[in-house]
Design brief:
Layout: E1 3-4, H1 6-12, E2 18-23, E3 32-37, H2 41-70, H3 72-76, H4 85-107
Parallel strand pairs: 1-2
Antiparallel strand pairs: 2-3
């Protein structure tokens, strides 16, 4: 694995590359070393799927934050059983995160099992 900095990682892209990133600590201490290997096709497709699901959730969360910040009167409304929309939306975000994790787990591709020959 070749070492690289954050700029190289962003510029070159994450997928299909092996990378090792070392983040230097304060006053020249060793810092944190992050190592990853996204060399296989399955790893690449799993990473893309994870990013796609993350962006989807991020958009839903950004809408929640936008409603809270700019339209609080909408979040005060009580559409079901006296519970306001902010609480319902918050529970929806939690349930949505669990569902997206389950979807990722089901769709995610695993490495094929190696065949033992000669047995």
């Amino acid at each position: 694995m070749k070492p690289c900095n954050v700029y190289e990682l962003i510029k070159g892209g994450l997928f299909g590359q092996r990378f090792r990133m070392r983040v230097g600590g304060i006053f020249g201490h060793s810092g944190l070393t992050i190592m990853s290997d996204l060399g296989s096709v399955n790893d690449q497709s799993n990473a893309r799927l994870g990013l796609l699901l993350f962006v989807f959730y991020l958009l839903i969360y950004a809408a929640f934050m936008g409603l809270n910040a700019f339209y609080p009167q909408v979040m005060r409304s009580t559409p079901f059983g006296g519970v306001n929309l902010a609480v319902l939306y918050g529970f929806g975000l939690i349930i949505g995160a669990v569902l997206l994790a389950l979807i990722y787990m089901v769709i995610c591709k695993s490495e094929p099992e190696p065949r033992s020959e000669g047995k």
